[in-house]
Amino acid sequence: METQKPKCKVCGSENIVFDSSRGEYVCQNCGAVLEDYVIDLSQEWRAFSSEQLERRARTGSPLSVVKHDKGLSTQIGKGTAELYKVPTEKRFQYYRLTQWSKRLSTSKDRNISYALSELQRIVSALQLPKTVLERAAMYHEQLISRGAIRGRSLEGIIASLVYYAAKELHTPRTFDEIAEVVGIDKRELGRVYRYVARELGLRILPADARDFIPRFCSLINVSEKVQKRALELLEQAEKAGIVSGKGPTGIAAAVIFIASLLEGERRTQREIAEKCKLTEVTIRNRYKEIVERLGLENIVKEKEAELEKEEIIEKKEEKKEEKVVIPLIKKEERKKIKRERKRKKKRKKRIKKKK
Fold it and tell me: Which CATH number fits domain 1-40: 3.40.50.1000, 3.30.70.330, 2.20.25.10, 3.90.870.30?
């Protein structure tokens, strides 16, 4: 809906101007003052560059869940380099103030800051978006308010929060990947994850294979056609009831393998298993089940035969090119040898003439 323009109560004109110096709305036709003593909520200064804007701004950064103090507290000095910016006669005083600012922080604040720094490290190592970091920090704050962290492994709790937040925001990571980054046992991570889910009342839902396909395709380095075909095959497999009860990573890898065959960008099962951190056996088993239930056996065999023929032809052409290149190299070497011999003979003749 369009906003209606204010009209003059005297003449009915819409030609109304705001006088910022007096704080009045004035009609330009008849000069009637429609509203006075209007408070100007905008800033009273102007900035002509980003540096000037930062220097003149009177507000700080917004509240952040990622910081232990929500970004409200202050800190005296950020390191030893700041000490040398202070005059020599006041350095001792400055050093004492920095020490006292550290001592006044409680153990609870120190533990929370350490936990959030560890959370940032895990999220960056797993290449997860900032939304996952904020969601995990929010869950961590809820656990602290309930007193559920005391006596538990801090690394395990943070890792389990990252696992759940990533799965909830459709950017899942496996237990193996998170356990490798954090440096704890996979069983320990699973135990802590169940405890955290019970404390926060979170629903433990299995990850969707659809969320793994884009990341696996980028790791294997296949085109968007393969990714689109893999998603279509996954939908068919879900309708056929093949996906239920199976691991989502294995299903995603098998679907990508079939799609790469059908689109002519074949990747071996070993290559997919290494990039996706799976075993070849799981990919092979899921591949056989999907192909048999969807009736793709004949199509897959034909595509494999075509790709094998193309590979054989490419190898033959490469061998022919190598055979052509080798004699050319030999001819060039012979020419170089002849040129060197001629130069040596000319040098000998010059030396004899001088003598």
Answer: 2.20.25.10
Q: Are 38 and 25 contacting, i.e. CB atoms less than 8 angstroms apart?
A: yes
The 10s digit of each residue's pLDDT in 58-84 is 766 667 777 766 666 666 766 667 767
| Structure tokens given for 211 | 């969320």
pLDDT of residue 161: 92
Strand partners, 24: 19
pTM greater than the 0.70 cutoff: no
Scanning the structure block, which residue is given the tokens 């409680």?
106
Give Cα 186 distance to the centre of its chain.
Answer: 23
CATH superfamily of this structure's domain 209-297: Cyclin-like (1.10.472.10)
User: In this predicted structure, what is the pLDDT of residue 287?
Assistant: 87
Task: Say what angle helices 280-294 and 269-276 make with each other, to 10 degrees.
Answer: 120
Say if residue 19's pLDDT is above 60.
yes
CATH assignment of 64-89+96-205?
1.10.472.10
* Alpha-carbon 92 to chain mean position: 44
- CA angle centred on 108, ends 103 and 113, rounded to 5°: 85
